[in-house]
Design goal:
The chain starts with 11 loop residues before the first helix and ends in an 18-residue tail after the last helix. By secondary structure, the protein is mainly alpha-helical.
Amino acid sequence: MAQTTVSVRIDDELKREFDEVCNELGLSMTTAIIMLAKKMTREKRIPFEVSVDPFYSEENMARLRSSISQMEAGNGTIHEVVDDDQGVDG
């Protein structure tokens, strides 16, 4: 079977951490990537959940914009955040 080279740009720290995990599992990074490619090809899907942080949903962003507008118009109440472990005074 003919083989080809795939080149990927990745952050240095991420590469280092990925390499460490692969080594702990007794795999090379190449083997781990081939395993991912084979599983995706076989299942026709990404084999893990991929999602977007719900904080950045359009609904939440609209609510935040509305709250900011209300605060800027003087129609809001400022609340002090209290750390349950230390109380207001620390």
